[in-house]
Amino acid sequence: MNNGLQQLAAHLEQLGFKPLYRGDPYGAGLDWIYFDCYFHEAAVRQRFGLGPDVTYTAYDGRVAGQEAGFYDPSTGFGLMGHHPDYGRNNGKAEITGAA
After folding, report:
1. Cβ distance 54 to 70 under 8 Å?
2. Is 82 a residue whose pLDDT tops 80?
3. Domain of residue 71, residue span
4. pLDDT at 78 > cutoff 90
5. Which element (helix H / strand E) includes 18?
6. Does the reported pTM lie above 0.85?
């Protein structure tokens, strides 16, 4: 697992976020943990040193569901939250990496 993703997971735990779901939502060998927040992509990338080997994915929910977050394609591990548009509009916490 990517060290920056481990640090981000620890940061979410320190902030008091509990996982809403952990599993493979697409049956593709993934291990994604979902949280009730949304991520500021650039700030989180910088703060936790997430390089190009970590993918940011965002699904806007126009058909069904919505999500956005970071995952490591080499391991399938990821940390997901709300799509920023939905997170902002619904008053969810924005994760930037700041304490």
Report:
1. yes
2. yes
3. 3-95
4. yes
5. none
6. yes
Exposure pattern of 41-64 as b/e (b: 16+ CB <10 Å)?
beebbebbebeeebeeebeeeeee
* Sheet containing 67-71, strands listed edge to edge, beginning at the edge strand earlier in sequence: 21-23, 31-34, 77-81, 67-71, 55-59
Total domain count, the chain: 1
pLDDT tens per residue across span 21-61: 999 999 999 999 999 999 999 999 999 999 999 999 999 98
Q: Which residue is it, tokens 């493979």? A: 24
- The domain that holds 9 is classified in CATH as 3.30.460
Radius of gyration of the chain measured on its C-alpha atoms? 12
